[in-house]
Give the backbone structure.
Amino acid sequence: MKSARLCAFEILDGVIRNNAYSNIAVDKSARELSAADRAFVSQLVFGVIERRLTLEYIVSQFLTQRTKPKVKIILYIGAYQLYYMDKVPASAAINETVKLCTDAGAEFFKPLVNAVLHKIDKNRIDTDSIENEEIRYSCPQSLINMWIKQYGGEAAKSILETLNEKPPVFAVPNTLFLDSDELIYELMLEGVECEKAGDIVKILSPLNIAKSKSFERGLYHIEDMSSYLCAMALGAEEGDTVIDVCSAPGGKAFTIAQSMNGKGKVYALDIHPHRVELIKQGAERLSLSNIITAVNDAEKYNSDLPMADKIICDVPCSGFGVIRRKPEIRYKELDSVKDLPELQYNILLTSSKYLKASGRLIYSTCTLNKKENEKVVERFIEENPGFVLVSTNTVIPSKDGGDGFFHAVIEKV
């Protein structure tokens, strides 16, 4: 069986050089490892991705020659352990990373890796005092500049300070069966530390969903605070017909269905069949019989769908609000997302055709980019005079709060 470090190297090589998705790669490559090794691989992979620009800077101070990309990845793995994994002794971090050279097909570079890592260990840099924000926060300057321009320097700093923090986890109680206080009691019986966060529950200790009896019994689902508040802003009522046009993984649909006390209908739609199946399984686990799942292309009008009282239009986006959950997103070229506003507008326009008179529609994204948020909504309101903008809300992520998020409430007159 391959070692944890070799597994981490192979995943990082795929992510950095071939743009693979880190979470999918970790799930696939580390499944045969022990629980402890899987946790080690996850920490190493996501950590190196998060701190990649900082690690490049650290390594560059002591690597005076050009070398192969795979060797740089090996050095990043070693440097990350030295700087950010306190439980790994420096000697073990260096020695095991040097051994990794052989397993990774870079045995010739063992002396180089050994020398560079020893220099890195003996000449520590206070990364928190680095003036260059791109290096300190490991975030491309182009993205930082966009946030400063669109949201101001103070908001941009708040965003940057959360990028490499561990994201909070929230559990939404299934109100068909219990409230937040009762869910806290159930979770504490399982040894899970938690506290109230409004009407939902913030998880304070590690939570293993696969072993959670209360999860299996359908007493809660996991959903970020920002997403939950967006779903509640829809104001769905008993007997309403609701359409969630881009529903997977289903968190908003679950929250809405519960807020309707299981009455009325919630159409939870997605273009990918396997993701629709995940929504269906979640609804069954939560005993939400008022959720109807179906495969549907949100860009194309579907005459088989009913007219709706309420619609959630949570569109595909660049994801710049959830970087702390998906660290590689920060390295996207801004030009690579320039076509998204047109797709988003088309989905919003198509979704609006299902809305009844006096109905309410929410347009939302998990990104912090006004071209995908306010600008799309402004265009829609300007080109469709039968709709009015009621309100907008932008969430700047914080250490203990929800992810970066945007939603606009639109009504049909």
In short: The first strand starts at residue 169 and ends at 173. The longest helix spans residues 35-50. Residues 173 and 220 are 4 Å apart (CA to CA). The chain has 17 helices and eleven strands.
